[in-house]
Batch of 2 targets.
Target 1
Amino acid sequence: GENVEQHPSTLSVQEGDSAVIKCTYSDSASNYFPWYKQELGKRPQLIIDIRSNVGEKKDQRIAVTLNKTAKHFSLHITETQPEDSAVYFCAASGANDYKLSFGAGTTVTVRA
Amino acid sequence: EAGVVQSPRYKIIEKKQPVAFWCNPISGHNTLYWYRQNLGQGPELLIRYENEEAVDDSQLPKDRFSAERLKGVDSTLKIQPAELGDSAVYLCASSPAGRAQETQYFGPGTRLLVL
C-alpha cells in the first residue's frame, strides 16, 4: 500500500517568514495529493490539493508543488501569520483509490 | 450548510467496556468514512460506506469493531470490548458522489480514552 512520509514533524517560524513542509510517497500510481490543516481540538480541513497533471498550484499565501519523478510534494506558506499555527497533514491517493494515506503531520508554530 | 456532526465529542471508559460513536454526514453525501487518529499521527481509514454498503472494511479490526449505516445516512461505529490501545480520536468524514479523489469533509471527531 501507499506510504507517505512527512517532514519536519515540528516547524517554528517567525511571523512573516515562509514555512515549507515536504512529503514523499511510495506508490508511483498516486496522483491526488491534498493538504489538510487541523487546529487544536478541531476537525481537519482541506486547504489545497493538487493532481498529477499539474506541477504547482497556488491559493493566496499557500502553494503546493509536485515532483512526480522524485515522488515528493511540498506545501509552501508565505507571509505566515499567527492563525497559520496548526498541524498540517499531507495525503495521497491513486486514480481509482478512495483511500487517503496520510503523513504523520507537521506542527507549525508561528511566533509573533 | 452544516458540516459533519459527531457525538459524543469526548468519551472516557474503562477497558472491556463497550462504546459507540455516532456520525451524521453532510446532507446529500453518499460516501461516509470512519478514520482513527492516534496521537501524533495522521488519520487511518477504518471503513468506507457507499450509501448503506460497506465497500472497504479491510482495515477494520472485526474482532471488536463493528459499524453500520442502516439507511445510508447516519452511521455508528462500535467497539466491544474496548482495549487500552483503542484510545484515539475517531473521525468521521463524508464526500458527495463516491468518486475517487473527491474532497473528504471531516467531522470534529470523538476523543476516546480507555482506562
Note: Residues 68 and 84 of chain B are 23 Å apart (CA to CA).
Target 2
Amino acid sequence: EVQLVQSGADVKKPGESLKISCQTSGFHFPIHWIGWVRQMPGRGLEWVGIIYPGDSDVRYNPSLQGRVTLSVDKSVSSAYLQLNVLEASDSGMFYCVRPMMVGAVVAGIDFWGQGTLVTVSS
Amino acid sequence: QSALTQPPSASGSPGQSVTISCTGTSSDVGGYSYVSWYQHHPGKAPKLLIYDVSKRPSGVPDRFSASRSGNTASLTVSGLQAEDEADYYCSSYVIGSNLGVFGGGTKLTVL
C-alpha cells in the first residue's frame, strides 16, 4: 500500500523558515517523482514543485522559486520541503503527493499525503 | 498560469446526477488528454477520481464519470450519495508549464 505520511502542523513567524517532511512507503522511492501542492485558505490548489529522487532533478512553481527548496533522502525514502522568508500569506495546507508522469509531463496525482497545516503569524 | 475555472458550488438530492465543469483553454484542457479530477473531504487526503480525461482508477465507483468537449472538461456524479458531499478539483497539463494547473474547486452539497 502506497503511503505518504507528513510531519505535523507548524506555527511560524514572518521571516522564518519552514521545513516539512514526507515519509513514503509502499513503492520504490528512487524512481518516482514526489511533489508538493499547497492550498491557501479559501483558495484552490497550487503546485509548489516536484523532485525526482533518482537524481534530485527539481521543478519549481515560478511564483515560489527563490524561496522554496525541495530535497530527498533516499536512505529513508523521504522528501522535504523548505520554504524561506515566510509571509502570512504562506499560511495553508501543504500536501506531499506522488505525481503520475508521462515522460516529462505531469499527468495527474495518484497519491496524496494527509497534509501539513502551516500557520504564519506574528 | 491562471487556474482552470470551476463553479464554486453545485448541489443535488440523493439519487440525482450532478455535473461539474472545468473550463480552460486550448493550451491546457482542450489541447491535451492529461485532465484529472480529485475528491477532497475536508480533513482527509484528496483522492484521485479520474485521470486522462475519463479513466477511473481501480476502486473508484462507476457513478463517477468524466468527459471533455472543446476546452471544457466535466465530471458527472450519478446516483448521488451523502458521502459524495465534498470538494472537487480538476487539473490539467498546460503547454509550456513544467507542473500543470488546478481548478479553483467546486463544493458539492448533497441536499
Note: The two ends of chain B are 34 Å apart (CA to CA).
